[in-house]
Amino acid sequence: DIRSILVVEDMTAKGTRIIPVEDRVQRLFPEATVHIGAVYSPVGGMALDTFGMKIDGRTIAEWDFLDEQVYQNVAVDMDGVLCQDCPPGLTEDQFILWAQTVVPYLVPRFKIQAIITSRLEKYRQLTVRWLAKNKVQYCNLFMDDSDTLEERDLIGWKVECINWRKPEVFIESDPQVAQEVHWRTGVPVVCVSNMKLYSK
Q1: How far out from the chain centre does Cα 184 lie?
Q2: At what angle do helices 175-185 and 154-165 cross, to 10 degrees?
Q3: Are the C-beta atoms of residues 6 and 52 closer than 8 Å to each other?
Q4: Best label site of 44, 61, 81, 149, fewest CB within 10 Å?
């Protein structure tokens, strides 16, 4: 008795995932009319029977922003993004042990142009070893050159680096830092802890 079926994908551009499903549904229900649709449809993408919203081709979907290199110049924070965030109140020895064994968190599958971290420069070698061990691809690693943790200006350091490197997007872990960095640089900032984009 089924006469009309709608197959819906979250987002489709070329139809490589939805067309095989459409064909399979049509074989299962040969008397029915099968329609295809998507919640998001990129401008210039395949023709659909229905869609929720047309989006720009440079849109990064939450579920694949680590897989798709939509932007060529991406900068990311280290702790809280590439690896789990550092617990507060660690002694220096505890931090060194933590930094060597911390679990990866959100590692992009493409080469990052810049890692901009508030870790101190004196921890560069152990950070570089961790990045290599966890197969993080990157071009530049910028670390805070303050002598002590107390001297750091967490937001000011990131703002300085971002204004110099001019990335197309920055990925940050802290909402307050993300909002302030965007406000002071004009660069769009994705905050991974609340999955919010700070942008104009």
Answers
A1: 21
A2: 40
A3: no
A4: 44
